[in-house]
Amino acid sequence: MKIDHNDTSFYNFLTSPNSLFRHLTDEELESLPFGRAPEFHKRGTILYNEGSRISGFYWIQSGIIKIYKTGVDGKEQIIRFAKPCDIIGFRSVLSNELACTSAKVIEDSKNYFVPAENLIFLVKNNGNFSMDIIRLTCKELEEANSYITDIAQKTVRERLAEILIHLKNNFDLDKENFLQINLTREELANMVGTATESVIRLLSEFKHDGIIELHGRKIKILDIKSLTRLASIF
Amino acid sequence: MKIDHNDTSFYNFLTSPNSLFRHLTDEELESLPFGRAPEFHKRGTILYNEGSRISGFYWIQSGIIKIYKTGVDGKEQIIRFAKPCDIIGFRSVLSNELACTSAKVIEDSKNYFVPAENLIFLVKNNGNFSMDIIRLTCKELEEANSYITDIAQKTVRERLAEILIHLKNNFDLDKENFLQINLTREELANMVGTATESVIRLLSEFKHDGIIELHGRKIKILDIKSLTRLASIF
DNA sequence: CGTGTGATTGACGCCTGTCAACGTCTGTGG
DNA sequence: CCACAGACGTTGACAGGCGTCAATCACACG
């Protein structure tokens, strides 16, 4: 069950300066399940549902997870996408409450499940780790507050432009510079907080104006400058 | 500079089960400035501005503080109101970043300013306190996510109804059951994320329908059931 | 009494949500 | 191999919610 310190790639990865686990001692690191093989989850798998009790958090090694809430009439509101090195579900664990979001795999994912007691032990006993968790939560909170301001004040066009920029900044591009992440029009709408038809019309408009290129679900951003202007980002 | 343990009211208050400071040792408690007199700030005072660096957090003893972000065209978006026993500004301290919100006194307030190093020391060295801080942040994050869902999916009418219920649940009523908190129509609009005129028209509508009563800025909720239905809360 | 801030009301029009119809693609089962 | 179902994407028509502008009123304050 020990982590193979000779597997330098993975060990270095877990202890690298940007890693959430950078401040763990070797002993603490070995208390976590990273010595085993990761779990594999196919596209479409639900990791947990809003309202359920979860007994630990997930560390994403590969793939993309959609985090969303279900609003009125069952309409989903996408809160964020988790990507490799992110952790999900830790909030419910730490506040010891039912999950307030659902998590669905949208790109095949390998991930590790870490039991709640491990996390709580680390938070209580390793002040630096605890600070990192707090910083992470604060960052998410700040982003949430910004998004509240945007969604309350900006038009749908501005928000869609902003989301496209956000996706470009946060997800890899393929060899032809198309966004790797595969989203349906409905999912885009559920991020922006609008109707599917509105997203379709605005994407067509952006395409017509030479700002983006579309190949089915694949999106390539051609004119980031115009898009930034459209998004009213200063 | 010691806290007067004979002042049982304040001492018991700080160590009561709901207090953020419940897990502090007497020694830790005395390292905080609660032994001094609180600072007094009049309505209208800005405690800190978005983008500024703050060197500590505030613990509110009395009064109400408006926490808001400034969006496009300088329009403010109210994130929340802080009331007695709340702390504000701690996120920027913990993540060591510039303030991402502004804080303005809207009801005369007494509060204590606690230097950043005190907070960081406690988080790193007192696991239970650290867990409480994390829980607090997680709670705020969950509320922010809920609000994102609401604002993205609900109509202005639904949101206003919801905000009124929220105010009723979170702020005291005076002897005639009017909401204690004094908000301009513009501030209400800046919470809901709409135009001032829309708030005015909807409030008149609610009043006409016998759901609320208005006396200037004072609001009394007459029919919480109808209001809940209007808010589409399930 | 003048000034300024906030509240109110009306008019107007655009953005955007909804409904409906149709096209496209993929996978499945006969 | 084809037919069909079902999910997703697209387009058009339409109405109404809500933002914006402007005028007026109410009230407090120096």
What does this protein look like?
The structure is a homodimer of 234-residue chains. The first copy, chain A, has helices at 8-15, 26-31, 90-95, 116-125, 127-153, 156-170, 185-192, 196-208, 224-230; strands at 39-41, 46-48, 56-70, 76-82, 87-88, 102-115, 212-215, 218-221. With 234 residues, chain A is of the alpha+beta class. In chain A, the strands form 2 sheets. In chain A, strands 1, 2, 3, 4, 5 and 6 form a 6-stranded antiparallel sheet that branches. The longest helix of chain A is centred in the middle third of the chain and has 27 residues, at 127-153. Chain A starts with 7 loop residues before the first helix and ends with a helix. The model of chain A has no long low-confidence stretch (mean pLDDT 93). Chain B binds a DNA duplex (30 and 30 nucleotides) through residues 155-157, 184-186, 194-198, 200-201, 204, 216-217.
The number of strands of chain A is 8
- Measured distance between first and last alpha carbons of chain A: 50 Å
| Overall average residue pLDDT of chain A | 93
Largest interface: A-B, 44 and 44 residues
Shape label of chain A: globular
Listing every helix as H and every strand as E from the N terminus to the C terminus, the arrangement of chain A reads: HHEEEEEHEHHHHHEEH
* Helical fraction of chain A: 40-55%
- Count of alpha and pi helical runs of chain A: 9
Low-confidence stretches of chain A: none
The largest pleated sheet of chain A is described as: 6 strands, antiparallel
| C-alpha Rg of chain A (nearest Å) | 19 Å
Q: What amount of the residues of chain A lies in strands? A: 15-25%
Structural class of chain A: alpha+beta
